[in-house]
Amino acid sequence: MIRPPQENPRPLSRAARTLCPGATPALNCTTAPATPASRATTALLVVGLLASHVWMHDFYPAFHSPNTLSRIYLALAIVDDQTFQIDGWLERFSDIQDKAEYQGHFYSDKAPGYSVLLVPLAQVARFFVPVSDFVSMAVLLRILGLSIPVVLFWLLVRPYYSGLAGDRRRGDAVVLAGAFGTPFFIYATQLYSHAMAGILLFASFRLLGRPVQPGSWSYQRAAVAGALAGISFTVDYIVVLAVPALLAAAWFTRERDVRELSCFTAGCATPLLAWMTYNLVCFDNPLRVGFHLHADPVYGEPYRQGFFGIQLPAWSDLFLLTISPARGLFFHAPVLAVGIWGLVRLHRDPERRYDALACAGVVCGIVAFAATTVDPGAGWSVTSRYLVPAIPFLLAGVAAFLRDAGAGETSLFVGLALVGVILVPMIAVTFPAFPVELTNPVHQLVWPLVREGNFGPTHLQMLGGASPAAFLLLFAVVGAGLLALAWRAGAAAAVTSSIAILALILGLQGAVPQSAEDVRLARIGTAYVQVLMGYREDPRAAAQPTRPDQAPPADSKP
Question: CB-based contacts of 280: which residues, under 8 Å, 6+ apart?
Fold first, then answer.
């Protein structure tokens, strides 16, 4: 049951109204007046988000992600060479697997939108970073073009989640769980497109959810929402079914204003026309994309069949995407599972039906398209990275689950959230790209690397300090904050039950049976990753598992 709005709601900032619009501040956002304690909480959250998201260096001694390089090459080719061809950067820095070949030239095989968004940042950065220093440019683009925008996103959606959850304290708990305890963090510290696509689509969702008011900027807002949705598609093709799901939710749950929805469609068409122009210039066909011309001999042929290489999904693919130890989103971030329960609750409130249907439609659309791709597991990745854009929408359900939650439900949330808050930092400081052979990467790769002290490079290490202790301490503080929520919900009993849930879930994850072949592959995979990280020099270890730059490939997917 939705609580009535509080009296005298605190006015919202302009930034908060952008991502958290609604009929009244009380209905959509936290309404408690700012206090010294709340300001201190905000300051700590800002510092924690910035420190954690800027921490990682994301370049390993012997591993450069082809997925990341493909996007950066395109952005720098536009800035430095005034062309869409990436031939020059393949020669200057390193050849990559993720490229398309057409008429003797090479192009990025990725959706071009994110690279284009990075162009203004690259132009400014070029005044300070020489062409020869590619690594510094790449890290700078990741920090300015992804990590800091993600931090701003979490701060801007706090009021929305607080409104769904019932108060600021619970809304902050949702932000902590999402920002620090889900794979969204992993892909906010590597220059992939999935987190940015999720941000753009969520902003479109919030703008489209604003009620129509005659004489207001409703139609202009709808056009902007459409433009953001269209850009999200040009950034990451995985949202192709999620965009019409947004439009359908608005049409069936609100007053059917044809003009407003027409403005959304028109706004969406503008970036799509730009995307088609790019394809025409590069590949002589407005609907031919880089995947159709993939240079890789293994994945190239499947992508040239049909439309984007789409295939019929199988139940095994849904298991792989959701709960499998290898790539399951709910296995590595189980708190997101209660989001499904929360969206059902949200749908029962007539005033929130759009939110419920839009979020559910986006999640289903992303999962459905991911299941039809050539490789639903998404190669070398933490979980199936294709589902990352769906995380903010699942968190809306998590927030709704917390509204009026008693001690038991709050404890369930805290226990599940703590699982992610424990796993994510260990993945981040070791090797956040699981080899495809591993069936339970957390126990086959992450735990062994942590035990042996094999940690990836960080900016602190660049300054002379290699220990990840401060980074892990930050996440311990986040875990303490979540436990404080359980304490307020039901004192010691709630905290005890939260820890019991945490221990149970971690125990179940570790109890997943492994065959002798799984154990053998885990040993080989760990040895190979240690070679990539610079901790081991053993050619035999590097010769066994699948490499990210050899067939079958690691990152040759949308």
Answer: 286
Q: Taking Cα atoms as reference points, which of 290, 208, 190, 292 lies closest to residue 245?
A: 208
CB proximity list for 478: less than 8 A, separation 6 or greater:
48, 176, 180, 181, 421
Euclidean distance between the first and the last CA atom of the chain, given in angstroms as a whole number: 41
The single-letter code of the amino acid at 286 is: P
The answer to whether 255 and 261 have CB atoms below 8 angstroms apart is no
Opening angle at CA 146, ends 140 and 151, nearest 5: 115
Start-end of H helices in 181-257: 183-186, 194-208, 218-235, 242-253
The per-residue DSSP string of 70-120 comes to: HHHHHHHIIIIISSS--HHHHHHT---SSEEEETTEEEE-S-THHHHHHHH
Q: Quote the CA–CA distance of 95 and 98 in Å, as a whole number.
A: 9
HSE value, Cβ hemisphere, 13 Å, CA-based, for 492:
0
Place of tokens 């499998």: 324
CB–CB of 329/183 below 8 Å? yes
Is residue 26 pLDDT above 60, yes or no?
A: no
7 DSSP 8-state letter: S
- Comparing 88 with 513, the larger pLDDT belongs to 88
Instruction: Provide φ and ψ at 108, rounded to 5°.
Output: -65, 140
Do residues 409 and 402 make contact, with C-beta atoms less than 8 angstroms apart? yes
pLDDT of residue 29: 45
d(CA 239, CA 387): 9
Residue with tokens 């939650």: 405
Say whether 148 sits in a helix, a strand or coil.
helix
Phi, psi of 277 (to 5 degrees): -65, -40
| DSSP designation for 432 | S
- CA–CA gap between residue 388 and residue 185 (Å, rounded): 10
Residue pair 429/373 in contact (Cβ under 8 Å)? The answer is no
Among the residue ranges 149-158, 286-295, 311-320, 546-555, the one predicted with the least confidence is: 546-555
Cα 440 from Cα 434, distance rounded (Å):
9
Given a cut of 50, whether residue 8 has pLDDT beyond it is no
Distance CA 163, CA 12 (A): 12
| CA-wise closest residue to 157 among 49, 229, 2 | 49
| Among candidate residues 533, 479, 481, the one with its CA nearest the CA of residue 506 | 479
Distance CA 74, CA 496 (A): 51
Strand partners, 101: 106
Find all residues with CB under 8 Å of 558, minimum gap 6, and list them.
110, 111, 236, 237, 238, 291, 308, 373, 386
Residue type, 307: F
Query: ∠ CA(38), CA(44), CA(50), 5° rounding?
Result: 135
- Distance of CA 467 to CAs 31, 94, 332, 425, 431, Å? 41, 29, 24, 13, 15
Element (H, E) at 41: helix 36-55
Higher pLDDT, 161 or 301: 161
**Could you tell me the pLDDT band of residue 394, with boundaries at 50, 70 and 90?**
very high
What is the spatial distance between Cα 96 and Cα 108, in angstroms, rounded to a whole number?
Answer: 10
238-265: per-residue pLDDT in tens?
999 999 999 888 888 766 678 888 888 9
Which one is predicted more confidently, 307 or 462? 307
